[in-house]
Amino acid sequence: MNLMQFRSSAAPARPKWQFIMTTFIGSFLCISCLEWLTLMQHQLWIMAPFGATCVLAFALPESPLAQPRHIIGGHFITAFIALMVLQFFGNGLWQIAFAVATGIIAMQILRVTHPPAGANPLVILMTNTPWSFLIQPVLAGSICIVLIAWISHCFISKRTYPVYWW
């Protein structure tokens, strides 16, 4: 392989300060809202992969990986697969690896690839979460992220988000 293939041009330009501040406000509000809902309802609305989802939804809103079908679908399918693996095979080393790999190919097949969702099987199998985790925080939280990203981009930064819904 030729090393010249790996040489890149200049790094991308830094976003405008207005967009950086919108990213801060949107992601801050989103995570704060999910934490507040968790405290008020005494049920999980938040999980670690949502932090990475906020990077895509607020800092890279034009990316295909940040679109609602990818955020909601990716989180849902990987969590569903992880819960199936947990129920039928347990949570050992090979089961965790199998759940992650199966989740990745399922996202590819269904055209809902969302990298942060690849962490869902790790969270689920390492903590033995119940089936209710699929609805809350996975589905409810990912829908909340999409709605807050939509509000943030459309009304604060006046950007078009999403590029497509489904």
Automatic annotation (TrEMBL):
The chain crosses the membrane at residues 17-37, 44-60, 72-89, 96-114, 134-156. It holds the Pfam family TM_HPP. This is HPP transmembrane region domain-containing protein. Keywords: Membrane, Transmembrane, Transmembrane helix. It comes from the Bacteria. PANTHER family: TRANSMEMBRANE PROTEIN DDB_G0269096-RELATED. The keyword Ubl conjugation does not apply. InterPro entries: HPP, TM_HPP. It comes from Acinetobacter qingfengensis.
